[in-house]
Specification:
- 44% of the residues lie in helices and 19% in strands.
- The protein is an alpha/beta fold.
- It has a seven-stranded parallel β-sheet, with helices on both faces.
Length: 418
């Protein structure tokens, strides 16, 4: 296979399909989503058989248990994919929505209309359920997409792609609206991220190394985040019972996710009151604690943190803890070490809380809530394509609206400029 020619062919087909999808009405797009869900349900046995091939190949290659778990299509995950399609079908369609319509002194009306981005290239690892999530969001927002999953899930993704193509065809939409790259050759990634004639935006989902490489080499705009170094700050005015519950949940609910807390900041005035209770909870959950000198004096089992710890996304049962003087000290630490993903303050003082909201420069900033809520589903966006910590176009969880853009519209009635 000539990879360059193959990828160019996918791009050409996606561009043509994207024009048709951009014109499709909500009813037709929703019909396609529901038809895809039906095909997934009907072909569960086939999908599980194809997934078993990937699992067997993964075991032979020595993939660790965590990767094999992410790769497996369990009955619960199959049902979740089906429900996800149904949920996206039920969401309002952003395409064609008009906002800010207003008269100008000349008599013309100016407004803005939501339109699809065009063709979206999505590069991701391991989890075949991402194939369905990405296809659903791109389809509902009127975009064509080219999906390049990890080589370890090639059979699963091709099987899911067949169901998607059948669903699109059943609704009278072009099958090329969702295309899965069917080669495991890594050169396909390099071609996709430079396919600027046909692809409008790239969305990478995976580890830091993958995203860093794509951000560096892509000649197409990229929607991404590199790290999830999330902070929780327990303020002088915190309700300590709330603080313990939130800080435990933010770290232990799930470890290998980008919205898990990696650093806990505690105001000095409440450190001796709250840290021992937290240490008991973390020890019971098997979390290793790494702290500053003050933290170690309060929690004897704590390991002394290094400067590197403050800048590390562990994605594991490891937590950095630092005792800070006050909210200014906490915000200074966050603004130095945060990856711009999610930060939370625990306080009953809403004057300080509003300062935190205003002065902390991250894509999600919270008051008295776990960082684990930084998620498209929890924000009411349905499924999400990913999280963006960039400041242009999309920021935070990226759902349907994040996969559209705005164009100006002008309504006149024979108006000419004088």
């Amino acid at each position: 296979m000539n990879i360059k020619d193959y990828m160019n062919s996918l791009g050409q087909q996606a561009r043509a399909a994207g024009r048709e999808l951009s014109r499709a009405d909500s009813g037709k797009k929703n019909a396609a989503l529901l038809a895809i869900a039906e095909h997934l349900a009907e072909q569960t046995v086939y999908l599980v058989e194809e997934n078993a091939k990937d699992l067997q190949a993964g075991k032979e290659k020595g993939l660790d248990e965590a990767l094999l778990d992410r790769l497996e299509l369990t009955p619960a995950r199959m049902q979740s994919m089906i429900e996800g399609l149904q949920q996206v079908a039920a969401l309002p369609d952003p395409v064609g929505a008009i906002s800010n319509l207003d008269y100008r002194p000349s008599g013309i009306q100016i407004g803005q209309m939501r339109v699809p981005l065009g063709v979206i290239g999505i590069i991701y690892e391991s989890r075949p359920n991402v194939t369905v999530d990405a296809a659903a969001l791109c389809l509902k927002s009127g975009n064509a997409c080219i999906l390049r999953g990890g080589s370890e899930s090639i059979n699963s993704n091709k099987a899911i792609a067949r169901c998607i193509a059948q669903g699109l065809a059943a609704a009278g939409l072009p099958e090329e609206g969702v295309q899965v790259v069917e080669t495991t050759d890594r050169a396909a990634v390099g071609e996709l991220i430079t396919l600027s004639d046909y692809v409008d935006v790239i969305v990478p989902r995976g580890g830091k190394n993958l995203i860093a490489r794509i951000s560096k080499e892509a000649t197409i705009p990229v929607i991404k985040h590199l790290d999830g170094i999330c902070h929780v700050y327990i303020d002088d005015h915190a309700d300590l019972e709330k603080a313990v519950n939130i800080a435990v949940n933010a770290k232990t609910h799930r470890y290998g996710v980008c919205n898990a807390m990696e650093t806990l900041l505690v105001a000095e005035s409440v450190a001796t009151a709250v840290l021992p209770a937290l240490a008991v909870e973390y020890k019971a959950a098997g979390v290793e604690l790494r702290g500053c000198l003050k933290t170690c004096s309060i929690v004897p089992d704590c390991i002394r943190a290094t400067e590197e710890d403050w800048a590390t996304e562990y994605l594991a049962p490891v937590l950095s803890i630092k005792v800070v003087a006050d909210i200014d000290d906490a915000m200074a630490h966050i603004n130095q070490f945060s990856s711009g993903h999610t930060e939370s303050i625990i306080t009953e003082n809403y004057t300080l809380a509003r300062r935190f909201l205003r002065e902390v420069d991250s894509s999600s900033v919270m008051i008295n809530a776990s960082t684990r809520f930084a998620d498209g589903f929890e924000y009411g966006l349905g499924a999400e394509i990913g999280i963006s910590t960039d400041k242009l176009h999309a920021r935070g969880p990226v759902g349907l609206e994040g996969l559209t853009s705005l164009k100006y519209i002008v309504l006149g009635d024979g108006h000419i400029r004088q």
